[in-house]
Amino acid sequence: MGVATVALLYAAVARISGRGAGLLAGAALALTPVAALMFRFNNPDAVMVLLMTAAAYCTVRALPRASGGWLAWAGVALGFAFLAKMLEGLMVMPAIGLVYLLAAPTNLGRRLLHLLGALAAFVVSSGW
Question: What is the three-class DSSP state of 32?
Fold first, then answer.
């Protein structure tokens, strides 16, 4: 889970700021003592961080073309993060919603519709 989290973080940051920044972000996560300790054991914290990073990656993918599909996948990832650690898995949800609402290159009605779709995907995926 740690390797996958670092790879997702690299991919998200490299998409926005370039490969060097992606490598720096991935290295910072991999070398952080708390993260290294957390990913050594099979516990819910590791999967929660992986899923929250996956949600952030999906949001980064959704932003350039205002893709409702990628935003729905972010909702699914947050739903599964909720299943892993309940409310702790939702820490990034307000930030993801606000970023998409402010930065997606489409009109307000379509952005709100995409956010409602992502919320529906979250409810379905967290309702297992």
Answer: coil
